[in-house]
Amino acid sequence: MNIGFNLDPDTLTTHGVVLGRTGSGKTGLITRIVEQLPAYTAAIVYDIKHDLSNIAVDQTHWNVHHQVSVQPQAGSILDAIKAKPNLRAFLEHVPPTRWLARLKDPPSVLGIIYKDFRGIPLETFISHREREKAIVALLSLPRQPSAPPLDITGRSIIRSEPTGDQLQTIVDALGTPLLPASTRLRLLVVIDECRNLIPGNGNPATKQPLATLLSRGRAFGVGVLLGTQHPMDICYRSLSNVGTWFIGALRGRDLHRDLRHECNAYVIESLAPRQFYVPRYKEVLNVSTCNTNLRGPIAWPQAT
Length: 304
Ligand SMILES: Nc1ncnc2c1ncn2[C@@H]1O[C@H](COP(=O)(O)OP(=O)(O)O)[C@@H](O)[C@H]1O
Ligand SMILES: [Mg+2]
Hints:
By secondary structure, this protein is of the alpha/beta class. It has two domains: 9-70 and 150-286, 3-Layer(aba) Sandwich (Rossmann fold), CATH 3.40.50.300; 74-139, no CATH class. Helices cover 29% and strands 17% of the residues. It has helices at 26-35, 54-58, 74-83, 87-93, 96-99, 106-113, 128-140, 164-173, 207-216, 257-262, 265-269; strands spanning 16-19, 42-46, 63-65, 116-117, 120-121, 155-158, 182-191, 220-228, 244-247, 275-278, 283-286. The chain has a seven-stranded parallel sheet with strand order 3-6-2-7-8-1-9, sandwiched between helices. β10 and β11 (283-286) form a beta hairpin. α8 packs parallel to α9 (207-216). The longest helix has 13 residues, at 128-140. The chain binds adenosine-5'-diphosphate and magnesium ion.
């Protein structure tokens, strides 16, 4: 594929990360890579900002989906609670507007986890017994599918962030007839604006399956391509398996020290839009013009 230089698509089985501030051309580079994928490669593109959907305007073989619901189900709420026994961290991970409405009695749920609510001891307005009843009710809520079934062999754009369950579905398919051992790039999973999905601190439901895809995907031809404008907010330990970094205009001090070591901060700070330094090739990539018309975020009313 020609993205400004020739990139062997199979290189992406060791994954790629695109960094750069807003306007540096991350979405343009990701679009260019996706539109040049070979016919043998399936793709699942998470279009959180609704601007990658432009790919499907000009190319006809894409299925475009809204996530039916990204609201966490009982199971993922419990996972989040278990993983983050701290009110502030939990609320950051799951904004209250997204889950309060789903629970019949939010204070009782909070009370199971926390001894006080906004400084008021819970015992004064909800008894221990009531809290126990609530946790039993919460545990008995069924886990419902929250997202469209994933098509691992076709080309899909999902206009939402991935759920942990969806990424786990891909992990579970590794080594099955859907994703047998391969040296070719069989499936590219693209997540632009991945900031909160694989953070260095915290443990959202997406982190573990994404880390597993990064460590085990290669043997099965599964590549992950991530984009973010917040390089400090991603987990570099999980990303130590990434073979190709595309580093666009950024403040040098925002780079993790391992990356800073590999590139000259002066070079990074002086990059123009659509230029990315690629440590793997020690070259500055001038991204070629997309065939796709980059209209910015677009509505997609007919998405299913
Ligand atoms: N490869 C490209 N081909 C054509 N236009 C591009 C390309 N890359 C960036 N652009 C232009 O620059 C604008 C900003 O780039 P974008 O990729 O959206 O930045 P970022 O995702 O880093 O915020 C795009 O809307 C588009 O007009
Ligand atoms: Mg972008």
